[in-house]
Amino acid sequence: MQIFITISDFLINRPFRLIGRPLVQSQARLAAVGGALRTFQPMRSYTASVSAEPFLNGTSSNYVEEMYYAWLENPRSVHKSWDIFFRNANAGAPPGAAYQSPPPLGGAALGLANAQAMVGVQPNVEKLVEDHLAVQSLVRAYQIRGHHVAQLDPLGIMAAIDPGPPPSDIITSNDKLEFYGLDESDLDKVFRLPTTTFIGGSESTLPLREIIQRLEMAYCQSIGVEFMFINDLEQCQWIRQKFERPGIMQFTLEEKRTLLARMVRSTRFEEFLQRKWSSEKRFGLEGCESLIPALKTIIDKSSMNGVESIIMGMPHRGRLNVLANVIRKELDQIFCQFDSKLEAADEGSGDVKYHLGMWHRRINRVTDRNITLSLMANPSHLEAVDPVVQGKTKAEQFYCGDTEGNRVMSILLHGDAAFAGQGVVYETFHLSDLPSYTTHGTIHVVVNNQIGFTTDPRVARSSSYPTDVAKVVNAPIFHVNADDPEAVMYVCNVAAEWRATFHKDVVVDLVCYRRNGHNEMDEPMFTQPLMYKQIKKQKGVLQKYAEKLIAEGAVTRQEYEEEIAKYDKICEEAHTRSKDEKILHIKHWLDSPWPVCFFKMDGQPKSMTSPSTGLTEEELGHIGHIASSVPVEDFTIHGGLSRILKGRAAMVGQRVCDWALGEYMAFGSLLKEGTHIRLSGQDVERGTFSHRHHVLHDQNVDKRICIPMNHIAPNQAPYTVCNSSLSEYGVLGFELGFAMASPNALVLWEAQFGDFHNTAQCIIDQFICPGQAKWVRQNGIVLLLPHGMEGMGPEHSSARPERFLQMCNEDPDAYPKFSAEEFAVRQLYDCNWIIVNCSTPANYFHVLRRQILQPFRKPLIVFTPKSLLRHPDAKSNFDDMLTGTHFQRLIPDSGPVCEKPDGVKRIVFCTGKVYYELTRERKNRGMDNTVAIARIEQLSPFPFDQVKVETDRYPNADLVWCQEEHKNQGYYDYVKPRLRTTVDRTRPVRYDQPPSLTPAHRGRYQ
Ligand SMILES: Cc1ncc(C[n+]2csc(CCOP(=O)(O)OP(=O)(O)O)c2C)c(N)n1
Ligand SMILES: [Mg+2]
């Protein structure tokens, strides 16, 4: 048996038993550095106590360890005294005997000057070790806390970004040397550099004075690097060498001139808007003009690394500038947005100019490669767009087979206050490394103007920086003074390289200021008087940078002025052109255009018919077979699951489906027809109610799974089913973004219980409900929301149908004027979303298939059942799913009432599972001939035409609505006016449940 010990064990003399043969030096090094655990095979028996060799204590062991490795590689690289010590120790010298006083200095082993500098004439090894340790700690202190003293704030009011005194272990003045037990006399001593720093460049030793100076250069100038929390050595080393190597911040003349030209565009764009529309809100970028070169640098570098498509999300600040100077939206199109008299050409309510999206493919001038840039439209709700951008990015990666994120990537921009305050930022970060949600690294750029509207950071967040949230995923954070454009460019280059190398998130924190108020109309002196006094004195960054370049001869003043005049002229000409625009086209602001083959050339649907959603007997049988089998060899499933699959097989034999099988039929057939399906949400793979089982787990082999749905047909589309993180806001936003990328995918998000959807309310209210009206963009996302009062308490009962219904755009008082043939499809086309509560598996099957087979896309909200999943009556016959059948918006009563409709006293309208309770009760009371029950399966758009057929069929019946929810909840308020409209208000509609504060419940809470 071999015992593996760490080098520290060896050096701090913990007794151990030696077995095995010594490694050659390079092997030992490899074993130590490359392995996950720094272990090596012991080389000698050594049981000395610390007291025998007191310099080998716990604190010095790291340092000695480093020295030991260096010695292994090259015995001459360490001081002679250490060389002798390691030789003796390796040769088996007893405790206390390995150490010998170093030989007299001046020999060939070391240069005299160096040697004297290191140990003095009378060397004191203990002091030597301590000093070297001190230097190592010093290096580490700069790496960990150098950012706290970096010159990050252009205003010099640093307290706003990072309150608190500078750390005491950073050498801001010589008196701090004392902290390390060093003094000024040590400044010229030469120290060996630890392998965890790159400040030496090609040197392995440096005088202390130089070490401090280089650390100051690396960590305490315009860039503050936060990375030492990252738990991966290779990544830390990568960052260290990016920021520590001497001479890193060198730019060519051409790079400097390009940077200046970009600064000119960024600055003069805002100035132009200010001149022309001085009283318009535009949320200008003034104070953070270097955002534009920052983004362009990231894009250039990423394009160089092979990225072809970049999806961006950003808030209000600087958005128009980004559209103009990064995405390159035509300037006249931007300027005409300021003309309040222009009428919108497209249907919908539109949105303010600083929310609109954009999509543009162009040649990247630096790399000469094609690149597609899109900026997603977003609501005012800060950060809400973050997960949506990620979902869209994931979808684009998925559809182009970019499994590593080499071709498609995302950039997210943030404000400092929102980044720190909004929880969805955290939820989005937590998706970043999950297999079904990762986009393989996002570059985050924070416009950190040290204020949020009128609120100072000290009262807006508890963390030092607004970016601390990124630490949860080990993303490095590069703080940079935005008034130093070259430093900005440098960190952006590093950020893009980081993403290309490690495929992980990274944050660039542009520390800047906001020259104006929150918007151009706001007075900031009311609330931040001192800050704004300072801002008024502040020279613009363009002017500062231009003066620097002129002074160093990189450009002449004349060239600079010509650059300005050239861009001003471009703006003026575009402004003149914009006056010719007669009409606003919201369609020009689409962020995710769909393939033209989905629409006609004019953007209209190809047809206005919904084909049959049924399947052949053979297809049903085949999918049913897959659903009830394990389509791979030697795969052991759980015994309980075997029973479930047997049950499914029996149902298929009897030509019936339960809920899960109905869903299987819909998914399986769409996949076979080439539609990608993605089902995501908490525990969706098995299903919260253990009914679905789309992923089978081998009971004997860890992580071995089987997804039968991917075994339907050879050329089928892929099925993605993924348990999500425990997030609603983030995950629903993500799926919405995924659904945006293509019309040919069925993307479903399932809430664990419908009740929990409200933590994603913003995505529902701001994107799903009004998305098409605001941004002329269709989306076919499906929400599955388990709903029903089944004794599980007030938070496991209601998906709050009343809220979804209240947000429908349909007029309850107007009977739609569509022809009978087109009624259903026209209604669907006009609505903002579709809401259904199916009572049968067949109808659920049809509505899922209709979602793809209809010629346009609308969000679909499905209130899904819990008790019906296993209800013996809630089964559908294959006959209801065969070719020619379709979704039934209303299921009329087909019982005895049909024979004598005149004798029917009451017609009860209902929806969902309550139907089964009603029929049972009707039977118990012997009312099968006098009470008709009609199920409204599609609540929105309301099936006025079919309801009318029912009310006409039973002319003598009174109208009753029945639901299990209390009167102020559920469907009543929505259905009642529509029923009244249908009967032209000739008959009243009754419902007798009282209102209630919480969702109603039955039985005991569990
Ligand atoms: C979710 C949300 N809450 C509140 C607001 C109102 N609001 C708009 S901008 C703003 C301040 C944002 O500050 P910051 O994120 O630092 O961006 P800045 O305006 O400074 O660029 C607030 C509170 C909002 N738009 N969204
Ligand atoms: Mg801010």
UniProtKB/TrEMBL annotation:
Keywords: Calcium, Glycolysis, Isopeptide bond, Magnesium, Metal-binding, Mitochondrion, Nucleus, Oxidoreductase, Thiamine pyrophosphate, Transit peptide, Ubl conjugation. It catalyses: N(6)-[(R)-lipoyl]-L-lysyl-[protein] + 2-oxoglutarate + H(+) = N(6)-[(R)-S(8)-succinyldihydrolipoyl]-L-lysyl-[protein] + CO2. GO terms for cellular component: mitochondrion; nucleus; oxoglutarate dehydrogenase complex. Its cofactor is Mg(2+); thiamine diphosphate. Residues 657-871 form the Transketolase-like pyrimidine-binding domain. SMART domains: Transket_pyr (SM00861). The keyword tRNA-binding does not apply. It is found in: Mitochondrion; Nucleus. It is an enzyme of class 1 (oxidoreductase). Residues 985-1006 are annotated as: Disordered. GO terms for biological process: glycolytic process; tricarboxylic acid cycle. One of its GO terms (molecular function) is oxoglutarate dehydrogenase (succinyl-transferring) activity. Its EC number is 1.2.4.2. Its main location: mitochondrion. Belongs to the alpha-ketoglutarate dehydrogenase family. This is 2-oxoglutarate dehydrogenase complex component E1. The gene is LOC112230775.
